[in-house]
Design brief:
about 700 residues, alpha+beta, five-stranded antiparallel beta sheet, four-stranded antiparallel beta sheet, 26 helices, about 50% helix
């Protein structure tokens, strides 16, 4: 049976939407409409999302024009409650029938797990889609992820920005509705300056093209982004350089412009004496400019701005932007010159005025903890303790500089420059910058051992302090970014192959917090919190949750040890017979869990009554020393490979031997044998969880 369909289009016209939230709002709007259509049991085809500074729009192909008719089963009372002893309908059944608008004779019997019940099959006519769309769209808008909604004028309508029009079409027909206080129509508006008048959209398929051709609006976000990227690269090449296009900046600029035009500007070369990161921060952070590099990879005295108009006088646009950026760069140069008049050490006392966390003290207090913790971490890495202590002492000083006060994203970066300027050791200067790495997913890790020690110390101090005073992350709320810090320090330890005892460091860090009451349970809780971040880390590498759990339950104190065990489990999972050996270990685990009381540690071969017992014992005995040596050397892949050779002996044991024998001594001896096997495997991983 064919279903009549049409293309649907809805557009909400607003004041300029928050650029960093534009994509999120657009996707949520489309997702909400899709969910509404599914709930209404309406079929549809491809969904196209449009997002521009002054509009959110969704176009959906092949939307079903009417709900299908369906039969809805209404369940009434049980049959035994619906009829009396004489077979006459009870008042309960009669009331149910009246409520359905039917006679008792129209009711049917249905079989359920609890017996026979009375029911009525109600034929429900499907509604036309036009009658449902207004509610679907309004519900989607009401559920958009808007932290703080606003009202404007004397309207009670609330939205992220004031709304100026609403368009809704199904095919060539307007869907009548009131959306955010506006009556829907078939008109939209183009560019605020180039085409401020109304544009009539006769059918959804012409929406994007008409806006582009007559309205000077590229409504498709991806197409607009691609055009900006193409233009930026083109004008940079024409100016003799290479544009650096940061993905986040590109997304923000795309969300700010409807009709983008790239323009190259210039600034005085004297500003190039300022660290390039400061100039880039001023250009990108404040003005949303892209910067350019020359053939040697050095910053050029140019910038690329994206204008939202197609100006008849591009030189005027260029001049205006050059005037705007000059004072920003002048500020950066002033801060650079001023900050270098004093050594970094002079900034240290000012840290006493900045609270790190009310219960945990000031940033100065944190620095004092970092001095001890960085030295503690650096010692097993063979790092000069004096270098770690010096790096920690200067680590937060640049936070009090003029430059970082104006450009907070330069924390650490300016510390490195100022430390270099005062002839600090190269490792110390690098560590001040690298302490914040990794700053985001996939970011680089600290390279030098001093930087690694300081980066781990900084993250661990924050985690133990905040966790220690009970401010655990909840849901998506993690104001101190403890989850990111935990994964960061784990990545440094694992990917840089640092053999550090995480539990020992947690204990040491906790002890340095005077406000935290340290106990073994708190150490365990923080260890579990940190290690839990590896679940997603390894999932991205194709490690299953079962493989992760097989190692996690062993609670290795050294993250690098955890990583080596994961590799062994991964290798084991690919071995022939891994599944049957995992099943056998699970069987052993289940048997041991059911044992009341303790299990003896020793096995007495004299109590063996079956050849399969002797064979398993001999196989285990032959492997024990070799496997233990491999485990001690953390050659886990070799160890688990050796252990897998007893698979046949284990299978034969379970085929021929009754573990829970009537003779108590024999039973205990067999349990002890199984426990020794289980404990030996457990020194690598709990493969019973695979």
């Amino acid at each position: 049976m064919s279903v009549n369909t049409e293309t649907f289009l809805v557009e909400i016209g607003t004041e300029e939407l928050p650029p960093k939230a534009l994509n999120k709002l657009a996707n949520a709007f489309a997702s909400g409409i899709e969910n509404g259509l599914k709930d209404a049991e309406l079929s549809y085809g491809n969904v196209t999302i449009y997002a521009a500074p002054r509009r959110l729009a969704v176009m959906i192909d092949a939307m079903q024009l009417k709900q299908a008719d369906k039969v809805v089963e209404r369940k009434g009372p049980a049959k035994k409650a619906g009829f009396d002893a004489d077979g006459n309908p009870t008042k309960a059944l009669q009331g149910f029938a009246r409520g359905c608008g039917a006679a008792v004779e129209d009711l049917v019997e249905i079989e359920t797990d609890k017996g026979i019940w009375m029911a009525y099959n109600l034929e429900q006519k499907g509604q036309p889609t036009t009658a449902l769309l207004a509610d679907i769209v309004n519900q989607s808008l009401a559920k958009l992820p808007i932290p703080k909604r606003m009202r404007w004028g004397d309207s009670d309508v609330e939205f992220v920005r004031p709304v100026h029009w609403a368009m809704m079409l199904l095919g060539s027909d307007v869907v009548p509705a009131t959306i955010l206080g506006h009556t829907t129509s078939n008109t939209t508006k183009g560019h605020r300056f180039h085409a401020p008048g109304l544009l009539t959209i006769s059918k959804p398929s012409e929406y994007a093209a008409k806006l582009a051709e007559e309205g000077y609006v590229l409504a498709d976000f991806a197409a607009r982004s691609a055009k900006i990227e193409q233009q930026v690269n083109q004008v940079a090449q024409q100016a003799g350089g290479t544009a650096v296009i940061d993905a986040d900046l590109l997304e923000e600029v795309t969300a700010l412009n409807e009709w983008p035009t790239a323009v190259v500007g210039e600034f005085d070369e004297s500003f190039l004496s300022v660290p390039s990161e400061a100039l880039v921060s001023a250009m990108a952070g404040h003005q949303k400019y892209f910067h350019m590099l020359d053939s040697d990879g050095k910053l050029m005295p140019n910038f690329i701005t994206i204008s939202n108009i197609e100006s008849s006088n591009p030189a005027s646009v260029k001049y205006g932007n050059e005037r705007v950026i000059r004072p920003r760069l002048a500020d950066a140069k002033f801060f650079w010159d001023q900050d270098r008049k004093n050594p970094l050490d002079d900034f240290l006392p000012r840290l006493k005025t900045v609270v790190f966390q009310q219960q945990l003290g000031t940033l100065f207090d944190k620095v004092e903890r970092l001095e001890n913790l960085a030295v503690k971490i650096g010692k097993p890495l063979g790092v000069d303790g004096a270098l770690c202590e010096r790096a920690a002492r200067l680590s937060k000083c640049d936070l009090m500089s003029e430059m970082v006060g104006e450009f907070p994203d330069l924390q650490g970066v300016m510390g490195r420059y100022y430390a270099t300027a005062q002839n600090e050791q190269a490792d110390v200067a690098e560590a001040i910058d690298a302490q914040y790495q990794p700053r985001f997913a996939g970011d680089d890790l600290p390279n030098s051992a001093v930087a690694q020690a300081l980066a781990i110390a900084d993250k661990l101090d924050t985690i133990t302090g905040i966790y220690g005073i009970g401010q655990l992350p909840t849901g998506d709320k993690d104001p101190f970014a403890l989850r990111r810090a935990a994964l960061g320090l784990l990545r440094i330890m694992i990917e840089k192959n640092l053999d550090l005892d995480l539990r020992l460091l947690i204990q040491f860090s906790l002890d340095s917090h005077e406000q935290v009451q340290t106990n073994d349970q708190l150490v365990d809780d923080i260890y579990d919190f940190i290690i839990s971040r590896l679940r997603a880390y390894y999932a991205d590498q194709g490690i299953s949750s079962e493989q992760f759990e097989a190692v996690r339950v062993c609670r290795p104190a050294h993250p690098i040890d955890f990583a080596q065990r994961i590799e062994a489990v991964k290798e084991f999972s690919q071995m022939e017979g891994a599944e049957s050996l995992s099943a056998a270990n699970k069987r052993i685990s289940n048997i041991l869990k059911k044992v009341d009381g303790s299990i003896t540690e020793t096995v007495n071969p004299a109590l063996f009554t079956e050849p399969a017992e002797t064979n398993l014992w001999n196989a285990l005995d032959a492997l024990r020393e070799t496997v233990s040596n491999h485990i001690a050397a953390r050659n886990y892949i070799t160890a688990i490979s050796e252990l897998s050779t007893i698979r046949d002996a284990v299978d034969n044991f379970f085929d021929d031997v009754m573990v829970m024998a009537d003779d108590e001594a024999v039973k205990q001896n067999r349990l002890a044998l199984l426990n020794q096997i289980y404990q030996l495997f457990l020194q690598v991983a709990d493969i019973s969880r695979l």
